[in-house]
Amino acid sequence: MTRELMVPRTAAKVTFGLICLAILASHTISMSRWSEARGVYDDVCYLRQAHLFQLFGLRGLNTDVSMDSDRYFVGKLKEIALSEPENPQRWPCHVHKLGGKLVLQYPPGTGFLLALFPSGFQVAPLYISASIIVCGFALLGIFIARSVPSVIGAGLFGALAIYSMINPAKASYSVAPTVALCSIVGFLTALWLTRAKRSLWPIALIGLLIGASVNFRLPNILLASGYCLFLAVGFMRSRTLTILLDALAFGAGVAIGMAPTLIAQAINAGSPFATTYGASDAVGPAFNVSVLGEYMRDTQSILMTLSIGWTLWVLRAGTRAARQIALIVSGNLLINLGFFLSHPIFTPYYVVPIAMLSTWTLSFAWLMQPHEETEPAALQSEALV
Asked: What DSSP assignment string belongs to 345-360?
């Protein structure tokens, strides 16, 4: 490559790198001023789980109301002016389970991460740490970009990803660590399929991280769906030991990663496979036009449109490796969006994980794809799997 071409590419990398760092610095200042008593039920409930870990260690997996021996949660409820904070039957985010237990509905992962920081200053460090991880992978994408257009694309997406750590990620404490993991999984997915010789460790680590994300939000298990479809179809078509080992490594990784949630459910709900959520949350599909309209008017619509459009483009114009990755993303999008858009409850963050995982994966797939002709898929005859 000539020096004349390298100079603008380097300048673009420096420019977008500084933009990403500037957004991170601005967010860090803003996050450091956040209040931990903004009046949201979910917030204080995650903080209760964190307090249980700080007070009892791993025994904090037991979230029964009897564990509130120092009246920490009562004090938190008084801070947000909840009526009858002394009455456990009125406590938000708690559900009745077998044996008369009244337990937290959330998996333990978010509370565990919050417990790593000092009480009273937990949320800001959690978000700042997650934002640093996201920024790190944004800078990595900019660094490995091979052309000015790819630098611009990686830079714009990186800036969007860092910006999203406040809006919409602030809507739930579980979203920040989930999105940080999505950036790592996106990179590993591209690394797994774009290398000339596949290794077992990337897909095993992908499974482990997706399993770990279930500890933040139970619906994150759906993030594994595209990988399951890809591996299942690949094995049925080729019947090779390599794909079978990939599938086993992925499945084992998911199971190990989500083990804390299975243990917590066994303690609180009586079985590893019994949810700690109440009936109002554990509902099946019930397509509602009003819910779809809420998503279309929300910031999430931008992320959904970007994910779908980018997937279609890579399927058409990417290399063989990039199109394989786009097939995983397609399956993931189809199942996740199908689930959440037919869910009778709307929130400002439900589809953020799948949108961010999809875009991170596609971004690294495009940046890391091998140097080969990127003819439209319709003109190429080789199998995708």
From this structure: ---TTTTHHHHHHHHH
**Rounded CA separation 35/170 (Å):** 12
Nearest-CA neighbor of 215 among 267, 283, 262, 277? Answer: 262
Q: What is the pLDDT of residues 60-106, one digit of tens each?
A: 999 999 999 899 999 999 988 888 899 998 999 999 887 788 999 99
- Give the number of other Cβ atoms within 10 Å of residue 96's Cβ: 11
C-alpha to C-alpha distance for 353 and 338, rounded to whole angstroms: 14
Q: Which residues pair with 95 in a beta bridge?
A: 103
Q: Give the count of beta carbons closer than 10 Å to the beta carbon of residue 166.
A: 18
3-state secondary structure of 103: strand
| SS3 state at 283 | coil
3-state secondary structure of 372: coil
- Tokens coding 43: 């917030």
Q: Rounded CA gap, 109 and 94, in Å?
A: 17
User: Cis (ω within 30 of 0) for the bond into 168?
Assistant: yes
